Amino acid sequence: MSDDEELKKKVIEWFQKHSREGHTKFYMKDVVKDLSGEYDKRAIQKALNDCTFDGTLNYWSTGSSTMFCLPENS
């Protein structure tokens, strides 16, 4: 498994762990903050964007804020 694939897996696991009833959408900075001890900030941001392109995460926008969530929580 490549480093990119491993990081994408970690990002999805992060969302699965932190998503709960009433709190399912997160800012990019939330994920970066928690994973930055292990990975580079830009790599985490790239992984989040890659996950939205392949459909494992969704963007969610209020018009002024953009958040990420698992597809089942859109």
Please sum up the structure shown.
The chain is mostly helical. Helix 1 (3-18) packs across helix 3 (41-54). A two-stranded antiparallel ribbon has the order 1-2.
Question: Can you walk me through this structure?
Answer:
- The protein is mainly alpha-helical.
- The chain has one domain (3-73): Winged helix-like DNA-binding domain superfamily/Winged helix DNA-binding domain (Arc Repressor Mutant, subunit A).
- Helices cover 51% and strands 11% of the residues.
- It has 3 helices and 2 strands, in the order H-H-H-E-E.
- It has helices at residues 3-18, 28-35, 41-54; strands spanning 58-61, 66-69.
- A two-stranded antiparallel ribbon has the order 1-2.
- Strand 1 and strand 2 (66-69) form a beta hairpin.
- The chain is globular.
- The model has no long low-confidence stretch (mean pLDDT 93).
Query: How far is it from the N-terminal to the C-terminal residue, by CA?
Result: 28 Å
State the CATH superfamily name: Winged helix-like DNA-binding domain superfamily/Winged helix DNA-binding domain
Low-confidence stretches: none
Strand order of the largest sheet: 1-2
